[in-house]
Design brief:
The chain is of the alpha/beta class. Helix content is 33%, strand content 24%. Among the domains are: 139 residues, Rossmann fold (3-Layer(aba) Sandwich), CATH 3.40.50; 169 residues, 3-Layer(aba) Sandwich (Rossmann fold). The longest helix is centred in the middle third of the chain and has 17 residues.
C-alpha cells in the first residue's frame, strides 16, 4: 500500500435551495410551492481509486468543479467520504494549503496566527518557538508580522501560509493553486522548496490549472472530469490528455481519439472511463501548422526573436527547427500569473503570438497579458493574437461560429468586441488593428498589436 490509498471513494453533498430559518418564509412556502426548500444531491466525487507512493509528486488537474479541492480535503480528513475509504500511512504528518486563509484568524497578528496555525497541526508551544524565526524569515514578512492579517494582501496570506507549511516538515504536502497569488520571486522559492521535499522523499499532491507549474514540480498527473478520475499516468501524456478535453469542450469535433490511444500506449498510464470524442490532437496539430505558416507570411525570419504564449502551441516543432538557437521562447499563456517569466527572457521580441489564448481567458487576464507583452516588444515588434470577435457589443447572447464553436461573453470559450480590447491597448500606449482570419482552423479573427511611437 502507498502512503495514500484511495479505494472507490465517492463524496456527496446536499445542496439546499430556498433554505431559510424564518417562520414567515416557511409558511409562505406552504402557499407557494416554488418557494419551498428543496434538497439536491450533488456528487463531488464518484468512485475514485488511486495510490500514491512515498516521494511522488502528483499533479491534480481538471476544470473548476471537477472535484480536485474536495479530494484534497478528503485526504486531509477535513471531509469524510460518503462511500469508499482513504487510507494514509500511519504517523504520516500532513500539511496543507487548500484554501487561502484557512487556519488563520483575521483579527490576530501574523505572529499570533503562526502559533495558532501550527497548533492546529499538532505542534506544542515549545516546538513552535523553535521554528518561529525560520517561518518569519521564509515569509519575508518581518515588518508586518505584528500587524493583524485582515490587513494582509492575498499574496501576503500565501507567503505566511506556505512558510508555515514548509517549516512544519510534513511527510505529505497538499497544495491547491498556491501559485495563483504571490510574486515571481516567492513562487520560485516555493518551487525550490518543493523540489527539496521531493529529494527528501516527501509526498506532494499539487492542484493547479497552470501546466508550467505542474511541470516544475510533478512527474505524474491525474485528471478529474465531471467528478471522475479519467486519467492517471505520466506528466506530458496527462497534460496532453487534459488539453484534449479542453479543446473538445471548446467545440473540437475530431472523431479519432488519438489522445486516448497515445495515453493507453504509455506503460504506466491508464485512461479511466474517458469521455467520448476526447481526441482532438489533429486539430491542435493543424493549429500549430497554421501558426508557423502565418508568422512566416508576416515576415518571420530565423534571426528574429519570438515569444509564443499560445493556449496550446504545436508550432514549436516547426519553430525550433526554423529559428536560430535561443531565439524561440514559449511559456504557458493560460496561467496569466506566469507572465512574470518574461523578466528572464530577451530584452525585446520581434514577434509575439497568442494563438487561441484569449478564448480561454476572462477579460481582466486578457488586459494583463497585453500590458505585459507590449513592454517586451521591439520598436517595430508585432503582437499577433487570435480571438473570437463579438460584432455586437450590446448583445450578450452566445454566438455559434461557422466552425461549430459556440462562444460566450461570460465563460469559456470567450468572445470580446475589438473596441473593448482597443481601449486596453490605448491605455498601455499600443495600437491595434484587425488583420482578418487568414484561414484560422477555428475561425478566430486575428489582431496585430504594436507599440506607439
Amino acid at each position: 500500500m502507498g502512503v495514500i490509498e484511495a479505494q472507490a471513494v465517492s463524496k456527496q453533498f446536499l445542496l439546499r435551495h430556498n433554505a431559510s430559518v424564518e417562520l414567515k418564509v416557511r409558511f409562505l412556502g406552504l402557499l407557494h410551492p416554488e418557494r419551498r426548500q428543496s434538497v439536491e444531491e450533488f456528487w463531488a466525487l464518484r468512485n475514485i481509486s488511486f495510490s500514491v507512493e512515498p516521494g511522488e509528486a502528483v499533479g491534480l488537474v481538471g476544470r473548476n468543479g471537477s472535484g480536485k479541492s474536495t479530494l484534497l480535503k478528503l485526504i486531509a480528513a477535513i471531509h469524510r467520504p460518503t462511500t469508499g475509504r482513504i487510507l494514509v500511512a500511519r504517523n504520516a504528518q500532513i500539511s496543507s494549503m487548500i484554501e487561502l486563509g484557512v487556519g488563520f484568524h483575521p483579527e490576530l497578528t501574523g505572529r499570533e496566527n503562526i502559533f495558532l496555525n501550527a497548533a492546529i497541526h499538532g505542534l506544542t508551544g515549545a516546538a513552535i518557538e523553535q521554528i518561529y524565526s525560520a517561518i518569519v524569515d521564509y515569509s519575508g514578512l518581518e515588518h508586518f508580522i505584528d500587524v493583524p492579517i485582515k490587513n494582509y494582501s492575498s499574496g501576503m496570506y500565501m507567503r505566511l501560509g506556505f512558510a508555515i507549511a514548509a517549516n512544519l516538515n510534513p511527510d505529505i504536502l497538499l497544495l491547491d493553486e498556491i501559485f495563483a497569488v504571490g510574486d515571481a520571486e516567492f513562487q520560485q522559492r516555493c518551487v525550490q522548496t518543493l523540489r527539496g521535499f521531493m529529494d527528501d522523499g516527501k509526498t506532494i499532491i499539487f492542484v493547479s490549472h497552470a501546466p508550467s507549474a505542474i511541470r516544475a514540480i510533478c512527474r505524474r498527473v491525474c485528471v478529474l472530469e465531471q467528478s471522475e478520475l479519467v486519467f492517471d499516468g505520466d506528466l506530458e501524456t496527462g497534460l496532453a490528455f487534459y488539453e484534449g478535453l479542453s479543446v473538445r469542450r471548446a467545440g473540437g469535433h475530431v472523431a479519432v481519439p488519438e489522445l486516448v490511444a497515445q495515453a493507453s500506449a504509455v506503460g504506466d498510464a491508464r485512461v479511466v472511463s474517458p469521455p467520448p470524442e476526447v481526441g482532438a490532437d489533429a486539430q491542435l496539430q493543424a493549429a500549430g501548422r497554421w501558426q508557423f505558416e502565418f508568422l512566416r507570411h508576416e515576415g518571420l525570419e530565423p534571426q528574429h526573436y519570438v515569444l509564443d504564449i499560445s493556449a496550446d502551441s504545436r508550432a514549436a516543432v516547426h519553430m525550433r527547427s526554423f529559428m536560430h538557437e535561443h531565439h524561440y521562447h514559449a511559456i504557458d499563456g493560460v496561467s496569466i500569473n506566469e507572465m512574470s517569466e518574461l523578466s528572464g527572457m530577451p530584452s525585446a521580441f520581434d514577434f509575439v503570438i497568442a494563438n487561441s489564448l484569449f478564448a480561454s481567458l476572462p477579460f481582466n487576464s486578457v488586459a494583463r497579458c497585453i500590458a505585459s507583452v507590449v513592454r517586451k516588444l521591439t520598436t517595430s515588434g508585432r503582437f499577433y493574437a487570435t480571438w473570437f470577435d463579438n460584432p455586437s457589443p450590446a448583445d450578450f447572447d452566445p454566438i455559434v461560429r461557422s466552425s461549430g464553436v459556440t462562444t460566450y461573453s461570460d465563460r469559456e470559450p470567450y468572445h470580446y468586441p475589438l473596441a473593448l480590447i482597443a481601449q486596453v491597448c490605448d491605455s498601455v500606449g499600443a495600437a491595434i488593428e484587425c488583420v482578418g482570419t487568414s484561414g484560422h482552423p477555428r475561425g478566430e479573427s486575428i489582431m496585430c498589436i504594436t507599440r506607439r511611437g
